[in-house]
Amino acid sequence: MFNQYLGISPKSDLLLLQMVSAKLKGKSFLHINSTRKGGGVAEILQRMIPILNELGINARWEVIEGDPRFFEITKKFIMPCRVEQKILTKRCGIITSR
Fold first, then answer.
1. Following DSSP, what letter does each residue of 21-80 receive, concatenated?
2. All domains in the chain, ordered by first residue
């Protein structure tokens, strides 16, 4: 699958992916999402997981289930991360610059 991007993606991006993946080879990553269909994250993971595995990174994708209240709460954590130029507090674990 990685080779499908040759000639499409910038060569420097592909080389960077290969260099970074060499350092992460053998590591495991678990991606957790609320759905396997629809939405940007699901579309990205459908392509990304096979590429990561091809590059020697053990990547998996699991779907989490919950009731509406559960997802209402998780959206409150995620939404500030999606706002451009948003400064998140140390409490959120992420601090970005303006």
1. HHHHTT-EEEEEES-SSSSHHHHHHHHHHHHHHHTT-EEEEEE----HHHHHHHHHHHHH
2. 2-92 (3.40.50.2000)
Q: Which two tokens stand for residue 71?
A: 């997802």
pLDDT score for 79: 67
Retrieve residue 94's tokens: 């992420």
Averaged pLDDT score across all residues of the chain? 82
pTM for the model stands at 0.67
Note the residue count of the chain.
98
Residues 6+ apart with CB under 8 A from 27: 57, 58
Type of residue at 20: V
